[in-house]
């Protein structure tokens, strides 16, 4: 039947993917899938190891850097005020480059162009700590993707990537995180892939890492070749995931198993 | 740069048992892992943790390679007098990182 009616087969498949999407009332943060112990670790700032990166980010925020000897605070003042809710709005459209940019990319840009510092490594401690510190200022606020029409193509592209099968295992993100989020994979909860707690302290990493690092882990898991850090594809995926999680509370720094 | 989080109650009554928690950012590299091209990653762990209450050791622990990165220690002690709790982590290279917290005992 599919061979005779390829168009119908495709339509059914597309319909199937749409049906797998998670309704607003069904959405759950990754935190809700964790053990009580890990939830308690995240809930208490004295036991949440992600707070070590927040602490480092707080110091970096006011440390002058680069050839212009400016700190983040020289322009932005107190992060607790100026950065409140900022992470909840990223990725945002960047006028200078004419494409969407994620929070880490924006901070890296600020460091090189405004402070005259070296380009910070994508998963390096400095950039991760600053991103965690900035995102921490949005904790408890709802994810609020901007209503910017220029972001629509990136969200559509992110969605396309999310639903594209890839790798030797031939799995799309949606195969697990839309269609089988109630299930378990190798003993671990699959979850719905809402990026509410990023950058997260992942127990497996024993460190804080970005959403892109987490997506890299999934891509390696399905034996696909991961995208490059900071690539448009990752930013598009981030844009889609954030729009998918609109209204959910930010948790940065989240703790995940 | 020391990245440590210590948690001590700000106030306590004399004789109270207080919960103390301390966490420090440290890779706790075991020395058993291989890096690229099979080159062993040198061991780099904290070997000793001490907590001093007004200069007197009230808690100490020896760490070994099985301890996770960013070690978290929780213990209790008795609030005896207002003063300073000093936390000391000593690593393989002999480098000492410290953090302090004040407690007011009534």
- State the CATH superfamily name of chain B: Immunoglobulins
Proportion of beta-strand residues of chain A: 5-15%
Poorly predicted parts of chain A: 1-19
Whole-number tally of structural domains of chain B? 1
Largest sheet of chain A: 3 strands, mixed
Q: What fraction, in percent, of the residue positions of chain A are helical? A: 40-55%
Shape of chain B: elongated
CATH homologous superfamily title of chain A: Cytochrome c-like domain
Under CATH at level 1, the class of chain B stands as Mainly Beta
Largest sheet data of chain B: 5 strands, mixed
Order of helices and strands of chain A: HHHHHEEHHHHEEEEHHE
Could you give the order of strands across the largest sheet of chain B? 2-8-7-4-5
- The global form of chain A is globular
Could you give the order of strands across the largest sheet of chain A?
6-5-7
Number of helices in the DSSP assignment of chain A: 11
β-strand amount of chain B: over 45%
Give the termini separation of chain B. Answer: 34 Å
Q: Give the distance, in angstroms, between the N- and C-terminal Cα atoms of chain A.
A: 44 Å
Residue stretches of chain B low in confidence (pLDDT < 50, at least 5 long) are: none
Characterization of the model:
The complex is a heterodimer of chains A (257) and B (106). In chain A, the strands form 3 sheets. A 3-stranded mixed sheet of chain A has the order 6-5-7. Chain A has a two-stranded antiparallel sheet with strand order 1-2. A two-stranded antiparallel ribbon of chain A has the order 3-4. Chain A has one domain (25-257): Orthogonal Bundle (Cytochrome Bc1 Complex, Chain D, domain 2). In chain A, helix 3 crosses helix 7, helix 6 crosses helix 7 (125-136) and helix 8 crosses helix 11 (232-244). In chain A, 42% of the residues lie in helices and 7% in strands. With 257 residues, chain A is mostly helical. In chain A, strand 3 (184-185) and strand 4 form a beta hairpin. Chain B is elongated, with a radius of gyration of 16 Å. Classes of the chains: A mainly alpha (257), B mainly beta (106).
């Amino acid at each position: 039947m599919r061979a005779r009616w390829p168009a119908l087969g495709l339509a059914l498949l597309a319909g199937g993917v749409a049906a797998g999407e998670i309704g607003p009332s069904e959405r759950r943060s990754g935190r809700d899938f964790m053990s009580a112990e890990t939830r308690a670790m995240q809930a208490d700032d004295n036991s949440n190891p992600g707070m070590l990166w927040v602490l480092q980010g707080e110091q970096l925020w006011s440390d002058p850097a680069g050839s212009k000897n400016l700190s983040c605070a020289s322009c932005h003042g107190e992060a607790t005020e100026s950065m409140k809710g900022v992470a909840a709005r990223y990725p945002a459209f960047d006028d200078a480059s004419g494409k969407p940019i994620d929070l880490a990319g924006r901070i890296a840009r600020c460091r090189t162009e405004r402070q005259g510092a070296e380009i910070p490594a994508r998963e390096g401690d400095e950039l991760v700590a600053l991103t965690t510190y900035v995102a921490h200022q949005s904790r408890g606020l709802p994810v609020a993707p901007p209503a910017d029409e220029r972001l629509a193509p990136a969200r559509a592209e992110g969605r396309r990537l999310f639903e594209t099968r890839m790798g030797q295992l031939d799995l799309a993100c949606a195969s697990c995180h839309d269609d089988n989020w109630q299930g378990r994979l190798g003993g671990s909860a699959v979850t719905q892939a809402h990026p509410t707690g990023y950058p997260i302290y992942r127990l497996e990493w024993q460190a804080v890492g970005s959403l892109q690092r987490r997506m890299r882990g999934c891509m390696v898991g399905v034996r696909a070749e991961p995208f490059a850090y900071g690539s448009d594809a990752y930013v598009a995926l981030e844009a889609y995931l954030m729009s998918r999680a609109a209204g959910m509370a930010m948790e940065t720094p989240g703790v995940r198993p | 740069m020391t990245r440590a989080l210590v948690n001590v109650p700000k106030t306590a009554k004399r004789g109270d048992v207080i919960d103390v928690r301390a966490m420090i950012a440290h890779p706790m590299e075991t020395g058993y892992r291989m890096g690229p091209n099979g080159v062993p990653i040198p061991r780099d762990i904290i070997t000793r943790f001490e907590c001093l209450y007004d200069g007197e050791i009230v808690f100490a622990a020896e760490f070994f390679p099985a301890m996770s990165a960013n070690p978290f220690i929780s213990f209790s002690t008795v609030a005896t007098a207002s003063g300073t709790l000093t936390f000391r982590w000593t690593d393989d290279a002999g480098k000492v990182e410290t953090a302090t917290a004040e407690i007011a005992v009534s």
